[in-house]
Amino acid sequence: MSFAKFAALLHDKQLVLSPLHMFEDPFEGAGGKACNMEKLGDAIIDTFHSLDSAKDGIEELEARNIGIDKQKEVARLWLKVGDDYGHVNRMYTFVNCWHENETESEAMWKLYTAHQPEGVAIQTTYGALRKAINQPEIQIGRITYENFDVAFMPGDSYGWYKRKSFEHEREVRVMIEPDDPEHLKQIEDAYKKKHQVRISLDVDIKALVENVFVSPYANDWFKELVEKEMKACGLDKPVVYSKMNEQALFFFSRRQLRQMWKSTLEGKNLNK
Questions:
Q1: Measured on CA atoms in the order 24, 25, 28, 33, is the torsion positive or negative?
Q2: Burial of residue 169 (number of CB atoms within 10 Å: 0-12, 13-18, 19+)
Q3: What Rg, from alpha-carbon coordinates, does the chain have?
């Protein structure tokens, strides 16, 4: 994250969640591809007809002269209506994103610090994140990456699926879908006024943060600035440089090694 966002987190002690429709990926919250809508509608009806438990329902439809072609037509109509609702649902589903990995990711550093090299990464765990938020209505989980060309996502779980093109993100997200009528009204009013809509969750910073990593692209003075900001906010946690910035060790080529070994045997001085 940028230093500005890090400082805001320290001072406000809040995690900011953004609605799905604000993200760059147009498939955030999607259940599949629009071009496969007809295929999905047909598959729903074909599956319905294959179920023994649906026998009575099928007989009733046929008694009303609602054949399988009409049933598929209705299924596609319902999917179109569902698509309209889904676009609205994206505006009322709020997430905060994290990257899960045992090591640092060069791709993620570049993604989040390409235009502002003075960036930081907070290291935490699932348990620490859950404890720091301490709100039972909050969901925390891993994103599942699917091939949207052939798969459809299960209902009521769309915010937990993304296309395989994003698999490098290895995302864990904090999610909330407000259902309190008063809160929903506030969100709706904010949209009508064309305000940016976010949800801020109170968080225990000391429970959340285990380590703070400084971007490998940051200048030397930046680590000291981060430490000063943390001290001013009463956060006593380790601040370390990205390990990607460590000095590399190189080796001889085979040709050079043979030459050096030969020179050693001959008692000659070693030269480059």
A1: positive
A2: buried
A3: 27
Strand partners, 241: 214
Same domain, 106 and 239: yes
Residues 68 and 133 in one domain: no
Which CA distances in Å does 115 have to 24, 118, 119, 223, 228? 17, 9, 10, 18, 23
Residue 55 sits in which domain range?
Answer: 34-88
Same domain, 166 and 196: yes
- Together in a domain, 226 and 108: yes
Residue 250 lies in a domain: no
- How many angstroms separate the Cα of 40 from the Cα of each of 60, 189, 192, 230, 247? 23, 35, 34, 52, 53
pLDDT in tens, 101-144: 999 998 898 888 767 788 999 999 999 999 999 998 999 999 99
Domain end call among 88, 112, 130: 88
- Residues 134 and 102 sit within 8 Å (Cβ to Cβ): no
Report the DSSP pairing between strands 171-176 and 199-202: unpaired
Q: What is the pTM of this model?
A: 0.84
Number of domains within the chain: 2
pLDDT tens for each residue of 134-175: 998 999 999 999 999 988 887 677 899 999 999 999 999 999
